[in-house]
Design brief:
It contains eight helices and ten strands. By secondary structure, the protein is of the alpha/beta class. α4 runs antiparallel to α6.
């Protein structure tokens, strides 16, 4: 079951022009869908066949059902992705080769996304989390908008594993090995859900704000496509669960 856990923590000619999106979307929640043409481990990952659809198409279909989004924008350097975005009524933000390249660091990528988002709140929607349900995304967005003390909400996965680093266990005493369920409550970011204040994202060059809230996902919804095996497993689960399940 998904739950929210608060934590404490102390361009070229095709490039998107912010002026093209006027004050209609200012101070609103903007869903940004980043999809680049290149993919080293899964060729054409974002647009290739995924069950009866594609990862990009599926994400746009699900985002359309979320209440509170002022605009859906696809940030891409891929012509095919741009065509799909237009088909589903999303705006297209053209990225130049530098920001669409595989050598760009995450902090540069996140700063660029924030810098080119016209609203004040960024809803970063990764297509590589295809089993994330509409109801879960809506719950996270509602929680973020109601919160007055957090500047980001980030989805996480519990890590009940015996972790080692440099030849030593880091989350348990090897002389008193506990059961896995009794291991410390450690979570990892899965990036399925990222909703953040645009200014915090720019200042920090990160999707985790200065005062974040963590939103825990179950294994199914947290599934992330990183390689071809992930893609095939996610596709099998999508075919079994069905699109209607995702729309609930």
């Amino acid at each position: 079951m998904n739950k929210i856990t608060p934590i404490s923590e102390r361009k070229n000619s095709k490039c998107f022009q912010k002026k093209s999106y006027n004050s209609i979307v200012e101070n609103k929640v903007i869903a940004m869908v980043p999809v680049r043409a290149g993919s080293n481990r899964v060729p054409n990952k974002n647009t290739r066949s995924f069950g009866d659809t594609s990862l990009l198409e599926l994400k746009l279909i699900l985002l359309e059902r979320i209440k509170g989004l002022a605009q859906i924008i696809v940030s891409t350097d891929c012509e095919k992705s741009a065509i799909i975005a237009s088909k589903f009524g999303a705006k297209v933000q053209w990225r130049n080769k530098y920001y669409a390249g595989s050598n760009i660091t995450n902090d540069q990528h996140w700063y660029h996304i924030a810098d080119t988002t016209p609203g004040n709140i960024v809803f970063l929607a990764q297509v590589t989390s295809p089993l994330l349900r509409v109801s879960t995304m809506q719950k996270a967005l509602n929680a973020f908008l109601k919160s007055k003390s957090h500047d980001s909400i980030n989805s996480v996965s519990p890590e009940k594993k015996f972790l080692w680093q440099n030849g030593k266990p880091i989350n348990y005493n090897i002389n008193l090995t506990p059961k896995s369920q009794d291991l410390p409550d450690i979570v990892s970011l899965n990036f399925a859900i990222t909703i953040t204040q645009r200014q915090s994202m720019m200042n920090r060059k990160n999707v985790v704000g200065y005062k974040p809230t963590f939103f825990e996902l179950d294994k199914v919804e947290a599934m992330d496509i990183d390689d071809l095996i992930d893609f095939k497993v996610a596709e099998l689960m999508y075919n079994e669960l069905g699109r209607k399940w995702l729309m609930k």
